[in-house]
């Protein structure tokens, strides 16, 4: 917009110069040719006035052309957005290609097989041949240094970015063949508690259960499970569910927002739960409480926890150590620590 206004000003100055030149030429013509053609005063005045108006006419013409060009540029951009910009995959699963059972996923078995992903063409691979397998109900901690691809793993799982090659299978079904609504919004399917929690404006009940799938007692039980409201929630009972949540959860701290997102996940009872630094903004005591709650409230759920606090995953079934988008190590914490003292996980612990 700034460039367009600058070009418009540049053109206006030159139009004024052209108009002034036209007036000067008209005056000189009347003065020098008056003796030859005997131009009447009225005709001479009309010629000079028309010359002066020529500047205005030329300005309107150039302005109309520039505005038309700008409008056509907007149409071109809209057309380009609709035809050339890559679009997301279909929201609904094509039943002709995939026979997806109504109760899918049943167990929560998750497998990454030779997954490669880059955020856009020309950039290096963020996931480079990542392969691992989680059985139903296993708890897996994902660790690694900054830039190792930990958060990219969750982006690939939820198809926020489409993978370049390889397969991600949930209960044996390739997620790339499933509609986005079934990947991200299927009841008792995949769920995530992100590092930057998202809360909706409204009441606590609407925030935790936006689709009304759970009873008030279940919502209140989930709220008590994460200790939001403290003793006040215990004494007020169902009235606590009417507490107001401002846009984005501004009236709650970041740690409380993460706990509310965890309560929302507890209500959803997913087969696979991803925790992307879900306890990064809570204190050590609350973190320990959350880890205890995960063992009881999410029994049978496959957990995939991206963690910087290594002590939170030391009692997990397996740990995935990532480096440069690859699975550098995969096994139980005990195996990784005792098997290779110089390994990535051992170095991170040290």
From TrEMBL:
Protein location: Membrane
Annotated membrane topology: Multi-pass membrane protein
Domain ABC transporter span(s) in chain numbering: 110-349
Any Gene Ontology CC annotation: membrane
Keyword Protease: no
Keyword Glycosyltransferase: no
Entry's transmembrane regions: 43-62
SUPFAM superfamilies for this protein: ABC transporter transmembrane region, P-loop containing nucleoside triphosphate hydrolases
InterPro entries: AAA+_ATPase, ABC1_TM_sf, ABC_transporter-like_ATP-bd, ABC_transporter-like_CS, ABC_transporter_C-like, P-loop_NTPase
Keyword terms of this UniProt record: ATP-binding, Membrane, Nucleotide-binding, Transmembrane, Transmembrane helix, Transport
GO function terms (MF aspect): ATP binding; ATP hydrolysis activity; ATPase-coupled transmembrane transporter activity
Main location class: membrane
Family matches, as PANTHER family: ATP-BINDING CASSETTE SUB-FAMILY C, MULTIDRUG RESISTANCE-ASSOCIATED PROTEIN LETHAL(2)03659
Stated family: Belongs to the ABC transporter superfamily. ABCC family. Conjugate transporter (TC 3.A.1.208) subfamily.
Protein name: ABC transporter domain-containing protein
Organism: Pseudictyota dubia
Organism ancestry: Eukaryota, Sar, Stramenopiles, Ochrophyta, Bacillariophyta
């Amino acid at each position: 917009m700034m460039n367009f206004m600058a070009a418009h000003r540049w053109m206006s100055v030159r139009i004024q110069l052209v108009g002034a030149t036209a007036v000067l030429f008209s005056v000189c013509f009347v003065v020098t040719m008056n003796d030859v053609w005997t131009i009447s005063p009225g005709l001479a005045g009309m010629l000079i006035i028309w010359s002066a108006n020529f500047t205005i006419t030329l300005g309107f013409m150039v302005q109309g052309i520039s505005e038309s060009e700008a409008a056509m540029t907007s149409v071109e951009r809209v057309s380009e957005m609709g035809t050339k910009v890559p679009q997301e995959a279909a929201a609904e699963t094509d039943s002709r290609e995939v026979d997806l059972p109504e109760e899918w996923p049943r167990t929560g078995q998750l497998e990454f097989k030779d997954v490669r992903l880059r955020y856009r063409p020309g950039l290096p691979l963020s996931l480079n041949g990542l392969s691992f397998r989680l059985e139903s109900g296993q708890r897996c901690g994902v660790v690694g240094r900054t830039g190792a691809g930990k958060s990219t793993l969750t982006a690939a799982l939820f198809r926020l970015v489409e993978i370049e090659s390889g397969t991600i299978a949930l209960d044996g079904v390739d997620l790339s063949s499933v509609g986005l609504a079934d990947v991200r919004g299927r009841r008792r399917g995949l769920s995530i508690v992100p590092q930057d929690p998202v809360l909706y404006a409204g009441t606590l009940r609407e925030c935790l259960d936006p689709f009304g799938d759970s009873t008030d007692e279940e919502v209140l039980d989930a709220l008590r499970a994460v200790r939001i409201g403290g003793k006040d929630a215990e004494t007020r009972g169902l009235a606590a569910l009417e507490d107001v949540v401002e846009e984005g959860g501004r009236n709650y701290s970041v740690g409380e927002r993460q706990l509310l997102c965890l309560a929302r996940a507890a209500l959803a009872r997913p087969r696979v739960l991803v925790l992307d630094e879900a306890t990064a903004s809570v204190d050590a005591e609350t973190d320990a409480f959350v880890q205890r709650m995960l063992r009881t409230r999410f029994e049978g759920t496959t957990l995939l926890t991206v963690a910087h606090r290594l002590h939170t995953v030391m009692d997990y079934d397996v740990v995935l150590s990532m480096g440069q988008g690859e699975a550098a190590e995969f096994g139980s914490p005990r195996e990784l620590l005792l098997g290779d003292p110089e390994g990535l996980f051992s170095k991170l612990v040290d």
